[in-house]
User: Fold these one by one.
Assistant:
Number 1:
Amino acid sequence: MAHDNEISNNSGNKPFGAVLEKAVSRRNIIQKGGLAAAIGFVSPSLFAGNKFSGNYLNSQGKANHSDLIGFNPVKVMDGNGPMPAISSDYEYKTLIPWGTPINASVNAYTGDPATRPTAAEQANMIGVGHDGMWFFPTHSKGRLSNHLGVLCINHEFGRNSHVLGKSYPESLEDVKLSQHAHGVSVVAIEEKEGDWDVKFSNLNRRIHVNTPVEFSGPVTNSSAGRELLDLNNRTEAHGTVNNCSSGYTPWGTYLTCEENFNGYFGSTGVWEADEFQQRYGFSENGFGYGWQEFDSRFDLSSSEFKNEDKRFGWVVEIDPTKPRSKPVKRTALGRFKHEGATLTVGKGGRAVVYMGDDQRFDYIYKFVSADNWKSMVARDVSPLDEGKLYVAKFNDDGTGEWLELTIDNPNLAAKFANQAEVLTYARVAADILGATPMDRPEWTTVDPEGYVYCTLTNNSQRTEANAANPLAPNSDGHIIRWMDSKHFTGTSFKWEILLIAQDYHGTEDTFSDPDGIWADPDGRLFIQTDGGQKDGLNNQMLVADPKTGEIRRLFTGVTSDEITGLTVTPDRRTMFINTQHPGNGDPSRTNFPVSPDGTTIPRDCTIVIRRKDNGVVGS
Ligand code: FEO
Ligand code: CA
Ligand code: CA
Ligand code: CA
């Protein structure tokens, strides 16, 4: 949170809220039989009597019992304070707090406020701001291991006050410490007798703001495109930043997504934001990290580092099996504030990637590869380098369209010179196409029946207020889902609202600001929150059954944290989630992962969750 509270879409496209008010009497959508009937798959009672449909919550009371969810929920009264709470049927342990060594060259940083890691030490340690991640299990004896693998984990951000212990950097060393705390960790982890720990492996590496990276895809295929990235003159490229949510591919790689990259840039000289920089939210002081003071790459007024700003805002592919491979920025997926990248395999074996652009009134995107991913890989062509990028338009009647971002569209050709510009300024192209501005699209997930879900975390600035519509302003968020034609690859879809968070206020199931979401192979939905919860609750992870409407609270975090990131072992007996920015870095609020002592700096941490009876997590 906090890095997203801006609006930079002034396109005038019809806000999603307006669509909702006008046509999505939620009850109507559900009573029409919903998507199931419209699209024709067999699930006739999908929403009947469903607690998820807000009006039914009030009129029919409790949801139907779900066979998928049997655990004792954490009660509201227990889910607060400086330490986490978990269902009485579960147990949790902590793993890789900020400062954990990933090799033998450094000692652990354990939160002592009097000492901080050096920048060089931080480059060999787990970073801060744990966010999206994925566990890549080791193959052993022809099987995927449930006890050993490589975790790729994003380090979205750590404020200067948290990481440096001061509000503004005073040296290049300070800036580099901040930079090395951001990025991604690739780290082997192993379970022995119930405890997971880092395993020093030659696969372990830190990828951060100063790591060499490369670009690929349509923007790099022309001199004009390379000019946009300043790759004709300045061939080396470095770094990834504000790595938010993530994705993974069937060919075994990790996708890390650059979200609020604009905030790390500033200006020390004469600089004025151009139209595109405005649309991406660049400003003279950014978010106050101050990197531009000591590192000209992040100085928007620097003539030496022309177009450095356009080198960020991409989906970046990392191969966890090749420690010397460079992370690759996949330009075909467009440049915006990428929340995550959820890849599913669609018709004809095409790779389909769903992506949110998390800002108030920004959009939901989809990429479809040009061909079957296996045949592309066999030809040594990345499935993420050739394909079509679309943006979503939600119509009032529950239908929707995917609008292609292509220079072949005369409306885009009137604005842009080539496809490289269309992709680099994807937000502006989407404005022109008439995409639907949403209430901050965060994570996406695809369930076993083919529904795609997106969390819309909140939008307090929505002005098309309607007293009867709880989404104006939308202070607590909702979850939308849709089903695409042609098995994910088509350009039309049907959509509906799954739930509106505000409908749950005042109940034991209360939650706000849905952010992380993941559908497991049984159809459970895990929902993670990031924002002010009601009734004194900390942020939390809930488990929902979209068929019965049941929802239960599995875990609550610590004071002023956010719960985000989710991955599992292949047997789903172990789940990993994260507490991000515990206490917002303030040791007077929490000292997690250590017990309250009032002084130890709280550290972002992975939480390992298991059922006490060794059952599937979520059951
Ligand atoms: Fe990094 Fe929109 O959450
Ligand atoms: Ca969020
Ligand atoms: Ca966050
Ligand atoms: Ca998020």
Number 2:
Amino acid sequence: MDVINSLLAAMTLEEKIGQLNLVAAGQAVTGPAGGGEASADIRAGRVGGLLNLWGRDTTAAAQRLAVEETRLGIPLLFCLDVLHGHRTIFPIPLAEAGAFDPLLWERTARAAAMEAASDGIALTFAPMLDVSRDPRWGRIAEGPGEDPFVAARFAEAKIRGFQGENSAARYSIAATAKHFCAAGAVTGGLDYAAVDLSERALHEVYLPPFHAAVAAGCAAIMPAYNSVAGIPMTAHIGLLRRLLRDKWGFDGVIVSDYNAIAELLQHGVASDPVEAAALALRAGIDMDMASGVYGRYLPEALARQLVGQEDIDSAVRRVLTLKQRLGLFEDPYRRIETAESPAAVPIELARDAARRAITLLTNRGILPLPAHLRRIAIIGPLADARAEMMGPWALAGNPNDGVTILEGLKAALPNCEITFAAGVAIDGEDKSGIEPACGLAAGAELIILCLGESADMSGEAASRAMPGLPGRQRELAEGVFAIGTPVVALLSSGRPLTVPWLAERAQALVATWFLGDAAGHAIADVLTGRFNPTARLPVAWPREAGQIPIFYAARSPSRPANAADPYTSKYLDLSTEPLFPFGHGLSYSLVRLENLRANRKEFGVHDKIEVEVDAINEGQCSTEETIFLFIHDLVARVARPLLELKAWAKVELAPGQTGTVTFALMGGSFCYPDETFAPVLEPGSFDIHVGLNADRNALLTIRLHAVSEAAASYAVSVTAKI
Ligand code: BGC
């Protein structure tokens, strides 16, 4: 008998349920009840894993209790949220998504996995794959933005990075795709709120990143807190069992979110914790994170025949299998007790990731900073805000490790006299610092205005109904603009902020998000031109909250906006266009695209289609450009979005150089989920649009024709060559 079968044969009911129990320890608090001392429960075999505990000594001590002092010696699983770095903090995922660079996404996950594994961690609750089109939702910061195609590539890269070739290796950790599903569509952008969506939206937008994660071998899935059409995801038999397990073949562990099983009572689908335990287990939740409901109430659920012994055994088998895949039975201390020194991330990777995440939103010729500058004023509450640079979910990061914007610029501009005043706090009503700050700024040749949110204004439980600048920052900015000196505005935030007035009045506007440890140096690299910015927006940037949800992949209104006709789809008081579209982002160069062509006009589902476009660098410096390919299925049984991203490619160009970018698509890339949500290619015309962002007025277009109807898959490959 193998180790799992012999363990299952030897385990008592209490020991089995113990394996399903994921207990919060006290090193970090990521949920309502915090964590506590678990030694007695570990010794009694009532704990399968611990979350929020890391470090070699602490994890080794807890592991010893499980291995040496329990009847069966089953090792513990140590789990932690490693969303954007472990000890070394990288840019928040939303910012890193803007790099549009799967290799970078993988490298930062690998580096984080190595650090986390060196701290005893074997399972991370990442990547977060919630497509979100609502910047009111604070958790938009943790995910890859608005687009399912990008999110799917993000999922694959992160899972490769975390899990490596072999999840039993010392520096590999298991990944958890979360939050399954549609958490990014919570009503009103309110965290934990209900989700009411069409099945089509689920299949087209919210599920594909999770499907990609499963196909990439993701070890675990975490259901979302929210309900979908009235059924809480923690109890969703249709999506967890029928789709995820039966249809997609996911055989890994499903781990509940923090306290989510207990919250089935709050949802109003269980009348007591016994029913909650039964609902969750029957839906396929293997591990109970932090609610203790399985431990306390599954025995009664079994006695009441609300669950069967085989439900419990299958869950235990999956948990033990995960432990086996991680090599824990071979060596429970593999990631902990080793002669090797803990893995450390080269700071260069953190700096490179950070600058690749900075999005230059506007530039009226002021950036890069001119070399002759001698006096700069750095004004604003985010200029010298070390801890804020980490952003949300930086549990093991050291808030003192970050480089502030002020420090980065001082180091990069040794010949400049730099003065600094915060002016106002990030939030709050005190305006008394505005006048002195403006007085200080008045003598400068250029002002760098550092505005934004604090780290805890995004992430979990951080929804904002008015996602603009908090507190008195706008008044500070107005004071600074009144001086008349050129202003470069930097925005530190976990979401796009609604600041159209700032975009209009600053000479340059830069989204610096939350960039992690290397923030200040990375920002200085971009502002000085040492690094020519490459990031593009992974999410549309709204003008006002009233436009939300706003995203590029909309379907056509029955009456598209037309200024000449009052009876068309428009706001009376605002443009329907975002301030900056998906894919927007400037560099210090200027690339023009021309000559879009394809190697064929007609295709079937198995045909390969090569689409090429020439990119000309008309600027003065070398540049790296990102080129997006969208499709539009003109007529279909189900109305298709006006644009759907199917590929992107990057090309590096010297000044004056022309390069050719080749996109290799399969006919299957043109399919869509039919009435039963199976991929289908319908015959008919497709427009291929290629451009630098999702602004439909600035795209090159050619038309191709699918010749026959066929079932299909969604494969696509992309190569860029010069
Ligand atoms: C969050 C999860 C996280 C868990 C453990 C919950 O509150 O929703 O994303 O993985 O806590 O920290």
Number 3:
Amino acid sequence: MDVFDVPAVPEWLPQHLRDEGIESLYPPQGEAVEAGVTEGESLVASIPTASGKTLIAELAMFSAVARGGKALYIVPLRALASEKKAEFEAFEQYGLSVGVSTGNYDSDGEWLAQKDVIVATSEKVDSLVRNGAPWIDQLDCVVADEVHLVDDRNRGPTLEVTLAKLRGRNPNLQVVALSATIGNADELADWLDAALVDSAWRPIDLRKGVHYGQALHFDDGTQEELRVKSSEKPTAAIVRDTLTDDVDAEGNVVEAGGSTLVFVNSRRNAEAAAKRLANVTSPHLAGDELAALAEVAEEIRGVSDTETSDDLADAVEKGAAFHHAGLASQHRELVEEAFRDRLVKCVCATPTLAAGVNTPSRRVVVRDWRRYSGDAGGMQPLSVLEVHQMMGRAGRPGLDPYGEAVLLANSHDELDELFERYVWAEPEPVRSKLAAEPAMRTHLLATIASGFADSRETLVDFLEQTLYATQTNESGRLEQVMDDMLRYLEVNDFIEETESGRLKATGLGHTVSRLYLDPMSAATIIDGLQQAETPSALGLYHLVCRTPDMYQLYLRSGEREEFTMEAYEREGELLGDAPSEFEESRFDDWLSALKTAMLLEDWANETDEDRITERYGVGPGDIRGKVDTAEWLLGAAESLAGELGLGSAASVREAKKRVEYGVRDELIDLAGVRGVGRKRARRLFEAGIGTRSELRNADKSVVLAALRNRPKTAETVLANAGHQHPEMDDVTPDPDAAPDDVAEPRHDDSDDDQSSLGDF
Ligand code: ADP
């Protein structure tokens, strides 16, 4: 279908597409248009990666806006929200406005009412519904990206319930659900009363296979020699082979060298693999490529001043890179761009971001097909769906004759296994996870609190709108879980039954729902806070780490003993009774929570990040993750303490501030000044400046010395503290105020740490 023949789109759109090099729609896009996606019809599109799903979403949203409507785009990952927004902002030249809603869960995002297109995660949309955002009712078109994630145990139910609620509030809502190729897309279409486009069409052919021994074995039965030298690993051999030009008998290049995308199972592995593979890519770089890569590396270093940033730049200089959710978004963009420009020859990525990286490459290597799973307590195979999505990244339309995607086998048996398990296999059907208890109790409370349902019957009606109801044939199961959970909510005072038999949320229940807590987290926190008037910071950290909303650290071997000792030593500080050592799994949870709490305590005691990562066996991104979650949960605990009039609210607030800034209590005030992180606060404190107001009135030579003679930093900090004349011209540092750990000032004035925890 020619782009000029698409009905009901805004008049500028066809020419815009043509200018972008899109003359006609891909076949699945054409099918979507025939199904009425530009005319307000709901649609489930289950099509392979890189087959143009984004354009289907854009066609739907922009035609809705052209009719005077408003559209919502639900992203699967927070890290992708701003990237999608930037993508849609390219259309602002046509008068379209775009807003992204991230950040706190307890606001109603009123300003978004003005925007034509809103981008948000399902958690955020769910919380906006709970907080009564008025514009939710004005939506005409909702796009759910990666809708197969309703299958995800942790996040799936929120997406499912959010879609059900949005549809419940507006029966005419157009829902466009984009999915990877799955076995049961028809069930999703049934659920959403939507037309179905279920297509295996790809813009470029894909050969799937397995590397074993000295050859690639493909699904069409062919084999291709690919030698692994005795000194190298298979991945390196494949990257090397892909980089090498294919020549014919006369020595003419038949196919120029290409790039490889390598999927591994953890951030750390991605970084390590990139470092190793950089040695493979670097001999293949031409002089002008080296110069261009050096520039990219410099930009990467400029994004943040951390080891990760340096490591990434070091690899990029040599033509390789890593890519994972722990990188700053600017890092990711720089890597993706350099890969698309064919400067970076090899990217090592984690599966989480497989869906987000729009970076086709000649070959894809799925190096790790097992991943550590906390739920299972060990390594678990990836799903067929995930592996196929990664494989789908192979092949650059217009550049390669076909893409190749391979797994790696170590033995003949494994070769067979991988063919069975992944190459030949159909993706698993997507199944609702709503009947899981944490999901059910959270969403029932939210549904009641937002007035969406006020009786058992209306709740059942609502649950009937979910995918779970469409899929289950076990009658009564959903109602049984529902009844159990309603009882739990009632016992814990989150809901009550009125005299007329209506269900309503209590004041406490409203607070819990608004705070976006799992009701079980709230119950745990309330119980703990009632145990002590002035709990210690560790006690509070342990309390929030015990809730189901905190993803705890695992105990490594030998740590059970270590943390059992700690548990006895710090027993007096921990809130509530410890389970007996004989109840093994509950006791281990208690210890895991203690380990996590001690990490937070170390952070709040100003221990260096490096020491923390070493002591707890975590990466800097993990510290950031724990700190963020703890901050949120402690904020929620403070609200709950306030709601219940508990005396512990002040201690909670202090513990929260300490973890937020990573400082002891005497630095809380100073560290709250923008540009002053934990280290600078400590240096200022040691130079005799103890508070924000002392900083405002401080002697400039003392401030300059305490901030390691960096005039620009000192000026910024003073200005942020509200100093009348922050200029540092002609100020000489006071030698008595110089910190003991003073180093030679660096040329770029960039200083260590500050913004807080490195680059995330
Ligand atoms: P998906 O979201 O399905 O993984 P994308 O929407 O990112 O895939 O599309 C992959 C690439 O294909 C993008 O670079 C996009 O610009 C391009 N593309 C999409 N539709 C067309 C088309 N009809 N003709 C040519 N290129 C297209």
Number 4:
Amino acid sequence: MAAASGDVILHEVDGHVGIVTLNRPEVLNALSLELMVELVERLEAFDADPAIRVILLSGSERVWAAGADIKDMAEASVFDMVERNQFARWEKIKRIQKPIVAAVSGFALGGGCELAMHCDVIVASETAKFGQPEINIGVMPGAGGTQRLTRAVGKAVAMDVVLSGRFLSAREALDAGLVSRVVPKEHFFSAALALAKSMATKPPLALKLAKEAVLKAHETTLSEGLEYERKLFYMLFASDDQKEGMRAFLEKRRPDFQGK
Ligand code: CO8
């Protein structure tokens, strides 16, 4: 793990997987301004690194992230908030092209839940708790919670969570469609890493374009989305990996994808 003591973000590389770990345990990984700057820098560095095919974002077993750092915001004015323009940083996470797997254990609240929803696949420990409790501190979700949660789980559950501030258990989150897999807490990291490694055996360009196409489903009409999908599908026939993948299938061998 590449880190010095006091680092709020840790990172390491395992094969083709870039691993990023939130590291402010004393405040339950609250997403301070500093942490968000470092997180985005690290995600962008992995996104630009050709050796990395998939990114794994994790917290600790106790907590994923308990939201934006309330100390950073408690005395802020509307002018401070506008001047900080923090959401520009979140927009950069949205623009990461490689798949991001979230390994979520413990609390994923407020900005923490929103950060998990910026990831592409959420693997949750059975102890995970998802919520948008901003209503309890006089505000409301601001990094996409009202939009992404509603698209993920539908209006009924989203309204319940956003207006009451209650937490969803991992099982509820699975049933509602917010997370893809729930695993025993002792395996939350290894299960997410295994998934990320398995994805990293796939052709990198197809991974990126497939991610882009799925995300497009939230942004457009069905017919425009289908058209978009078709064009990306055609584009993959310009890649060596398409030839390799199909030939390997026909030759009954494992494909060797080069990311070209
Ligand atoms: N910000 C700052 N510090 C925090 C935060 C936080 N979000 N959450 C926990 N901490 C600190 C506590 O103050 C405490 O510090 P200390 O030991 O110095 O008192 C330490 O972490 C441990 O926390 P608790 O003692 O409260 O631990 P418990 O196990 O009793 O409770 C909870 C855990 C339920 C998670 C509780 O800490 C809690 O409710 N936290 C706040 C959750 C919350 O309201 N999150 C939403 C924040 S607002 C937000 O995310 C808006 C996002 C907008 C977009 C982002 C723009 C930047």
